[in-house]
Amino acid sequence: MWKLKDEAEGGTRAQNAKKMRELLENCRDVAPGTREFEVGLAAPGEESTYDVVLVSTFDDQTALDAYQVHPEHEKAKAFIGKVRESRQCVDYVI
What we know:
This is Dabb family protein. By secondary structure, the protein is of the alpha+beta class.
């Protein structure tokens, strides 16, 4: 989950959330072994602690590792690093 800055990279929080969703959606099928991949934005007009959430499931650590180093993911990470105020992440094994 990410909380975004009010303004960054020439965009508002809402504009950057949409761009972030687009960049993350481009990562949906980049790694074999990706089972689920969902990007959500906080509901407009609702008070939320965070602005963007990614929920993803991978077959195994190898699939997650492939996703993390893929050029599309690296591109998304670069943008996110510039527009995020904070981030929360939990990786776990089922």
